[in-house]
Design brief:
The chain is mainly alpha-helical and 109 residues long. Helix content is 52%, strand content 4%. The protein has four helices and two strands. It has a two-stranded antiparallel sheet. Helix 2 packs across helix 4. The longest helix is centred in the middle third of the chain and has 19 residues.
Length: 109
């Protein structure tokens, strides 16, 4: 199965950009999918990720932890931009959620 990974938000709005920058994770070079709360669905989606995405995610998380411990942020030109936020986990997460819902429906019968 091939996945189409979306780059950036579905709709670019000034409020969305404002909220994205206010969240602060972009100052550490993190993507939106890097800071998701790890539910069972997210953990399964992470398990299904190709190794390159896992390695990239681990690098970003390690760098962010180091920056946080040293109480610094990246230079502004290295911040993750709202338009360029790479939603690498979405197709895998949507698939896991569909499978879980299908399994729940199957178990109801």
């Amino acid at each position: 199965m091939s996945y189409i990974i979306r780059k950036g938000p579905k709709q670019i709005t000034s409020i969305g950009r404002w909220a994205y920058n206010l969240s602060g994770f972009n100052q550490y070079g993190l993507h939106h999918n890097d800071v998701l709360y790890e539910t069972d669905d997210v953990k399964e989606a992470l398990r299904r990720l190709p190794q390159q995405y896992v390695d990239d995610r681990n690098y970003r998380l390690t760098r962010a932890l180091h920056l946080s411990m040293t109480k610094t942020i990246l230079p502004k030109d290295q911040w993750t931009k709202y338009e360029e936020d790479f939603r690498y986990l979405e197709p895998y997460l949507e698939e896991v959620q569909r499978e879980r819902e299908e399994k729940e429906d199957w178990n109801k019968q």
